[in-house]
Amino acid sequence: MPQEDFFDLYRNYTKGQESPEQFHYWTAVAIVGSILGRSVWIDRGYYQLFPNHYVILVSKSALARKSTSFAKIGIPRIMDTALKLMDSAGLAGGMPKIIAHKMTPESLCQELVLREKHAPTQTNMERPIPNPCLLYASELGVFMSKSAQMSGLTDILMDIYDCQAEWRNRTKTSGVDFLYNLAPSLISATTPDWISGNVTGSLFNQGLVGRTIFVYSDKAQMRIAHPIMDDSKRELEKRLIEKLQRISYLYGAFSWTPSAYRYFEEWYNDRPEPTDDSGESGFWGREHEHVLKLAMVMAAVNRERLRVYKSDIIRAIERVGTVRASLVSTFKEVAYAHEDAELKYVEGVLKEEGTILRSPLLRKVYRRMNQAKLDECLTSLKNAGIIKLSEGKKPKRGPTPITYIWINKPSSP
Fold first, then answer.
1. How far are the Cα atoms of 67, 228, 234, 235, 237 from residue 231, in angstroms, in the given order?
2. How many angstroms from the chain centroid is the CA of residue 281?
3. Is 413 exposed, middle or buried (0-12, 13-18, 19+ CB in 10 A)?
4. Maximum C-alpha span of the chain
5. Per residue of the chain (413 residues), what is the pLDDT tens digit?
6. In angstroms, how far is the first alpha carbon of the chain from the final one?
7. What distance in Å separates the CA atoms of residue 312 and residue 310, rounded to the nearest whole number?
């Protein structure tokens, strides 16, 4: 008998709530990947690839119910319930730890310490004990604020993404922390404004874009004044939880059908390289791994078997391709937010000074922008009637002195 499609069930379960479909979909992916953890993998020759995901939902503040999809529905109602049922049945060994609090590098390492690296099986052979976790926070600042970046927490999250069998972290006070059989997943939410003001260029260069599924939406799925949890929804919830319980028993390497193997190879070889720097280039380098991670999640949760089919690869390529395409929208919004922040900064300087010559103004803003960007901001403020320019008497040598004067209110439209 064919298995039910987990994601169809999940879509039907959440369609009575306002968060966009793609937010619910990738929430489900992060949950399933975390349950599978380090117990299943695809052999990539020189290394093993695991199905963990880092997912960041992006939209303007309160616009698309970002955190609701995971912090109020996916994690507490589906994942946490499944884990509690497994724990009560004595089957929680190797299941993911849900970590939802603010943390330091030291506290994260303490959460992930394993007393034993291996456990005996029924055949008396040792099997590595998986050490998965799902880190989540309604606001991305918990993991990637400037203070988190300075403390080294963000560096650790980037480093352990690859699910190392053994990972070392040298601390200032307690020597070296050894962590084993890691399988971290992460889901959080943010706005373009927050990314612009807090995520540094160095963090992007460290591989945040390549490792992360940025899911962008500029609107809610629909307006629903009174969401309802009825018996049909509870039945769907029960079936989703049961599926998570069943896939927790899976262990081992995925195999490929011949058609899946060929289709992935052809797609991989024919991929065009990105032509701009809108965020796609960083993602492109790991896009094929995102496809394989998602294909593993689909195959495991839909068929409950460790075999990848061509249909899994096709659907994974489509979903990941949508994420890649939306990076343009995500980082365009970030660029707009950054430009708006620059404009507000110049406006604030002029408001504080009241009247200022060009040279002192340049000295005040040179750490934030170059001369061309300053001129763009000044032109915008002048056109809006917020400032005016006054040219002084032209000297015998050098440029004519320009004074910028704060008018105090924009002109009427």
1. 25, 10, 5, 6, 10
2. 16
3. exposed
4. 94
5. 457 899 999 999 999 888 999 999 999 999 999 999 999 999 999 999 999 999 999 987 766 678 889 999 999 999 999 999 998 888 767 789 999 878 888 888 888 886 555 555 544 445 667 789 999 998 888 888 878 878 888 888 999 999 999 898 776 666 677 888 999 999 999 888 787 777 766 566 557 888 999 998 887 777 888 989 999 999 999 999 999 999 999 999 999 999 999 999 999 999 988 776 555 667 888 999 999 999 999 999 999 999 999 999 999 999 999 998 887 767 665 555 556 667 788 888 888 888 998 888 888 888 778 888 888 888 888 888 888 888 888 777 777 888 888 886 544 44
6. 66
7. 5
Q: Is residue 278 helix, strand or coil?
A: coil
Q: For the whole prediction, is pTM greater than 0.90?
A: no
* CA atoms of 194 and 207, how far apart (whole Å): 18
